[in-house]
Amino acid sequence: xxxxxxxxxxxxxxxxxxxxxxxxxxxxxxxxxxxxxxxxxxxxxxxxxxxxxxxxxxxxxxxxxxxxxxxxxxxxxxxxxxxxxxxxxxxxxxxxxxxxxxxxxxxxxxxxxxxxxxxxxxxxxxxxxxxxxxxxxxxxxxxxxxxxxxxxxxxxxxxxxxxxxxxxxxxxxxxxxxxxxxxxxxxxxxxxxxxxxxxxxxxxxxxxxxxxxxxxxxxxxxxxxxxxxxxxxxxxxxxxxxxxxxxxxxxxxxxxxxxxxxxxxxxxxxxxxxxxxxxxxxxxxxxxxxxxxxxxxxxxxxxxxxxxxxxxxxxxxxxxxxxxxxxxxxxxxxxxxxxxxxxxxxxxxxxxxxx
Length: 355
Hints:
34 strands; Immunoglobulin-like; disordered N terminus; mainly beta; elongated; single chain
């Protein structure tokens, strides 16, 4: 009889052990509002996102609310605590431990970590873009769904520009994007105490110097693209010594298969693709780039910056009529008439100079 009792006792203990629950804890140092959820998974999740509401514990740690989630031992390998918008990173399920900001701790370690006030970090954005409704989207882990949380407008400006800030407990985030109606910054690495100006981090003093110092003019160049079917390499146009608003490329050989554009580069980045010509105006739209198709031969390319015009003439041009023929090929029309530009002078088809 004693052996039978022992067998059943062992079996009951084994079943109890197999069904034992494990609990993980989340200390809400971030001060998240709303329902705190637990999204747990190994292969299959415990529920659809954002998971199952976590249990609010009666006992706090250092004045911070504590939430828990329990499951049978071995059920889950990972967990994310969240409030539906803000969330922790993907965590490895660590039974009996407390997640505080960036890592798991025992209860005693969590209490020790939170015994002193948690330091807050602040990132700043100088709104020299005139964006409205500035928000901060921080992640790794995520602070909220896009476009993020509303950034705080600082009382003090820099160089006349509004400054916005976003703060969080130290170690909360790795990246941040400030954004608003009108645009967004690049993906920025969280850099506490610094100011974003034109997608670069600066100290306050550096930001003031950048925005109040002399403005470095953008480097503007004009290149001819599409020669030889190559849309990657451009042939630069040269400023006309007789007309600073005009850039030229003389005697460029064009083959039958070429379809070319004059492209404006600002600091090396294409900012305008100039193709279609309609009454001497140029479309600057990537959606309607309008290649200029020419018959084979040598051409002079004129790009008049001031009026945003592009002029194309054949070279050598023995007389105005020949030039006009080439101009007609590219549909240069003004007030319903074909016009010709040669060396900065406009002619009609009769060879008469147009003032």
